[in-house]
Specification:
mainly alpha, 6 helices, 0% strand, extended
Length: 157
Amino acid sequence: MNTAVSPIEKRNERYGKYVDSVTPKSGTLKSLFNSFWVGGLTCCIAQGIGDLYAIIFPNFSEDLIINITSMTIITIAILFTGIGFYDVIARKGGAGCFLPITGFANAISSAAMEFRSEGLILGTSVKMFTVVGPVVVNGVVWSTVAGILNLLILGRI
């Protein structure tokens, strides 16, 4: 039986050791804690913005306040992506910064920024919709499935 180690196996072993040496070590508990406080802080800031809008515009309906607050949070996420600050938050907060509204805004704007050199249509627009497309399709498909199940099980929509 041949017990000699091939050059490829040696290379793979060296590469594995290199990857282990440069990969940042993070504990699960620390990651969970950072995700929790970053996501929680983001939600508290959004709530504060909504409350501020409610004070400034007392005649606005609650639905309008919610919509304006969502637009504000989306705008802030896009601005943070543009200046590179969202990446700093993502490195620290992990999954906590990918709340649906801010994470989606970051994903779309970063794709648009990354491919802007390819032009407005074939770069920015096309790449932006490669991110949006699957989200919209999944949203439509699974909401349809949920509606059908609701109709079949409960007999109402």
